[in-house]
Amino acid sequence: MRRPAASLMKLFVLGALAEEIASGNYDARQKLTVHTFVGGSGLLKYVGTPIVLALEELAHFMLAYSDNSATNQLIEILTVDRVNEFINKIGAHNTKMIVQMMPTKAHGLKDYNHTTADDILLFYKGLSNGFPKSVHLGCVPLCRKFFVASQPSFLNTMTFFTSDVQMRCLKGVAKHNFLSLGKYVYALLSTFRGKRLTKNVAHNRIMAQKSATDKTIFHDSCAVRLGNDFLCVVCLIQCDEGNFYKPLTKRYRAARRLLRRIGKIALNEFTNESGGVTENEK
After folding, report:
1. What does the buried/exposed string (b/e) look like for 44-83 if buried means 16 or more CB atoms within 10 Å of the residue's CB?
2. Which residues constitute the signal peptide according to the record (predicted)?
């Protein structure tokens, strides 16, 4: 069943980027100037002035902070057609990118980026066991490398906090958008809160994860190490009566609780007070 993809589309943007780098068409350290900023999730929207970032840094913003401005910059250099080419290569035939992140109302009325749980699973299966032969062999190790660097571990977070790019972002916010400094810091700390499927999973067991939130959707996905294998879980929630932009609402809390419970059960780690799993939870 097709659902609005929202930020889950960033998985396929990553795949297209990694394949381009692996093919030698781009260098991960190649620098671009981000000059267009959009709303929604992310940090760059608070900077308020053009900033120069490498492709690998844009990928980090996209994965660690689900930054829409960074994602759009990557889509601009890759093109929507190139992202769709990667989608077709891995056989995700019910997924399509039509517009960039946070499109204008004119674009939004035409159509929306869509996907299915099965297609997201195809991406994670490729990440775990290898994409089809039509995809460059170097794509998988590069994707994994980007995911490892974006995991919300204490070491990764502190490394980013003290990085040059972080200092430049912070200076940009302080100088050009000072009133948003508090919002920037709040968004910067987002990696420590809001976990869904992987709430009870150790950082070193998570190979990759990506969530997506829009007004009416609340998605999550992950690939978790189980010994020498992987367990991939994809959950797509859509509720047209909800408003998942508001974390304090009943539906937001219920959806987050549901995903966390699914994550525990899928990993066989869920126990209630009696030490077992109830019939309803099964």
Report:
1. bbbbbeebebebbbbbbbbbbbbbbbbbbbbbeebebebb
2. none
- 8 A C-beta contact, residue 248 and residue 183: no
**102 φ/ψ sector (left φ>0, alpha ψ -120 to 50, else beta):** left
| Residue 59 tokens, joined | 């990928």
- Least confident window among 96-100, 101-105, 180-184: 101-105
pTM attached to this predicted model: 0.92
The overall longest dimension of the chain from CA atoms, in Å, is 57
Asked if 223 contacts 124 with a C-beta cutoff of 8 angstroms, the reply is: yes
Under 8 Å between Cβ of 234 and 121: yes
Per the CB < 8 A criterion, the answer to whether 192 and 152 are in contact is yes
The model's pLDDT over 256-271, given as tens digits with 9 standing for 90+, comes to 999 999 999 887 765 4
Residue 202 is given by DSSP the state -
Q: Write out pLDDT tens, residues 99-145.
A: 999 987 665 556 789 999 999 999 999 999 999 999 999 999 999 99
Report which secondary-structure segment, H or E, holds 206: strand 206-213
Cα–Cα distances in angstroms (integers) from residue 103 to residues 6, 98, 99, 219, 220, in the given order: 11, 10, 6, 19, 21
Could you tell me the two tokens for 244? Answer: 């998942």
Task: State how far the alpha carbon of 277 is from the alpha carbons of 37, 219, 244, in Å.
Answer: 46, 24, 28
